[in-house]
Design goal:
Elements: H1 2-9, E1 24-26, E2 30-32, H2 36-54, E3 57-66, E4 75-84, E5 89-94, E6 100-105, E7 111-115, H3 117-130, H4 132-145, E8 149-152, H5 166-177, E9 184-186, E10 190-192, E11 195-202, E12 206-214, E13 221-228, E14 231-238, E15 254-256
Helix pairs in contact: 1-5, 3-4
Protein name: Lipoprotein
Organism: Streptomyces alboflavus
């Protein structure tokens, strides 16, 4: 799921330098006035990124799909999160069979995840099909975590603080923006994901790499989409600055993942 937030960060690669009214200096030797659609695209992308970086909180829905359904290699990861500048985060994740549930982080503390009932049932069924002799141990572990939260170590790569760190995401965008290749252009307003938006697309790659900003009112980023090397990423942003509540679960509802051994409890359900 950390990869999903990387997808969010790559939205910054659509950010261009300068403003629409000022010429762009190339290599310090001559100046080139941007065409109107590129100047407008630069203005919208810059404004959208500014509003994103200043947001106190937001809702993030993201999905990564890759592989081929025909070849049996299709993979899809989805998350839906509410996160804020105080490192609070709550939402759901879906990484396929045995990897569905909810998570929460309070003030940058440990991440707590709770697998869904169907996810645990699927894990158990898979274990019994692969190795009935080992399934008994998996069954015990499933029973321990069913209906409870797993507390993951803060340095865990998949469930670490960076996943829900809105401030860190903004800083990552700043860095990625410096790697911009090519320019962007604004297209005619349209509807995307149920929102009236202005597409800001990569001049070289078109809508294979596109940022969508609200067509009315403040030009907040509503979506970002990219496709490369057979991997498609779709990021949707909403509920800018809307407050939400999250609380650490009671101790009686928590199981420490480190109790199961392995790196960060990674072998919790290992067959």
């Amino acid at each position: 799921m950390a990869a999903v937030l990387v997808a969010a960060a790559t939205a910054a690669t659509l950010t261009a330098c300068g403003t629409d009214d000022k010429p762009v200096r190339l290599n310090g030797t001559f100046e080139q006035q941007l065409p109107p659609d590129q100047a407008r695209g630069t203005e919208l992308a810059t404004e959208g990124m500014r509003l994103l970086k200043s947001a106190r909180s937001l809702r993030l829905n993201a999905a990564i799909t890759k592989g081929s359904a025909t070849a049996g290699t299709a993979q899809r990861i989805e998350v839906s999160l509410r996160l804020d500048r105080h490192d609070n985060c709550t939402g759901t994740f879906d990484g396929g069979q045995g990897q569905r549930g909810e998570l929460l982080v309070v003030k940058g503390g440990a991440t707590h995840i709770r697998f869904s009932e169907s996810s645990l049932d699927g894990l158990l069924a898979e274990a019994e099909a692969e190795d009935p002799g080992v399934a008994a141990g998996i069954r015990q572990r499933v029973a321990l975590v069913r209906g409870k939260y797993l507390r993951m170590p803060k340095d865990n790569a998949a469930f670490g603080k960076g996943m829900c760190d809105l401030g860190g995401l903004s800083r990552a965008m700043d860095g990625l923006g410096e790697n911009l290749n090519g320019t962007v252009r604004a297209e005619e307003p349209t509807f995307r994901h149920g929102r009236h938006v202005i597409p800001v697309v990569d001049v070289e790659r078109g809508d294979a790499n596109a940022l969508y900003v609200a067509a009315e009112g403040r030009h907040r980023i509503t979506a970002y989409e990219s496709e490369k090397n057979g991997e498609r990423r779709v990021l949707r942003l909403s509920d800018y600055n809307e407050p939400f509540e999250v609380a650490t679960p009671p101790a009686a509802e928590v199981v420490d993942a480190s109790e199961f051994g392995g790196p960060a409890g990674a072998d919790l359900f290992e067959v």
